[in-house]
Specification:
249 residues; single chain
């Protein structure tokens, strides 16, 4: 699991968010509760939940690990977080970091490249159809108090490389897919967000304006404050996002 500390600006939202990523381990309930209690003691006021295949979802049959939390078990964790004053923010990856889904035989048809299982092919209508079902189930799981929803979108290394995707302008395709999946969120009054590196990286940033303005851009940069001469290129471009009218985490 990974922790990310983020300060949200320009929107009335949590000020300190702890990112709990279930990617690499099926944590015990007691471990997650300990993390939540420590987060509350340390002044966090929200949790960014990246649950991947560690909760049993009806919309992703065959994906959860054997010892994944049931939805009722996970709701118990959400109730503990609420008791501690920690607002829930779900995170579901919609482009890359899809190994936990696309490595399964039933989902190989959704891959961008047949020999890679890290990236969805968003030119395929069935990808958006599946993801909207997953997002709807997340909203049901996390409950009516969800105000913010993170659609991932980072490090999609082979995005727009299949023959169909290559015929489109990458950021048009990216924004079109975001808009489609976010329709489920907007219908519930939930505001969508996206990581910054794809939309603000050197390859696509010229077309940043194509991304709908209701998306919050979540910045990440492991080098901030580190003794390194290299800084992620998107970090220097955050003022551009604000100038275009985006809210930024």
């Amino acid at each position: 699991f990974a922790f990310g500390v983020m300060a949200m600006t320009a929107v009335a939202a949590p000020k300190l968010v702890l990112h709990i990523d279930f990617n690499t381990a099926q944590l015990r309930r007691e471990t997650v509760v300990d993390m939540l209690q420590e987060a509350a003691r340390d002044g966090y006021d929200a949790i960014l939940w990246e649950i991947e295949n560690k909760v049993k979802l009806d919309s992703l049959p065959g994906v959860p690990v054997e010892k994944a939390f049931t939805k009722e078990e996970f709701r118990g964790l959400l109730q503990e977080a609420e008791r501690l004053g920690l607002e829930p923010i779900p995170l579901f990856q919609t482009f890359g970091h899809a190994e936990y889904v696309l490595s399964k035989p039933a989902y190989t048809n959704l891959r961008e490249q047949a020999d890679r299982y890290d990236c969805y092919c968003v030119s395929k209508p069935e990808v958006a159809e599946l993801q909207k079902k997953v997002v709807a189930e997340y909203l049901d799981l996390f409950g009516p108090k969800v105000k913010w929803f993170h659609l991932g979108g980072d490090e999609a290394r082979i995005f727009a490389t299949c023959p169909v995707c290559k015929a489109r302008k990458p950021m048009e395709l990216y924004a079109e897919h975001l808009d489609a999946v976010a329709s489920v969120l907007r219908a519930k009054g939930v505001r969508p967000g996206i990581w910054c590196d794809m939309v603000m990286g050197d390859k696509y940033v010229a077309d940043l304006a194509k991304v709908p303005r209701d998306f919050i851009i979540w910045h990440w940069d492991y080098q901030v404050g580190a003794p390194s001469a290299w800084v992620c290129p998107w970090t220097k471009k955050l003022p551009m996002a604000r100038d275009l009218g985006f809210d930024v985490v």
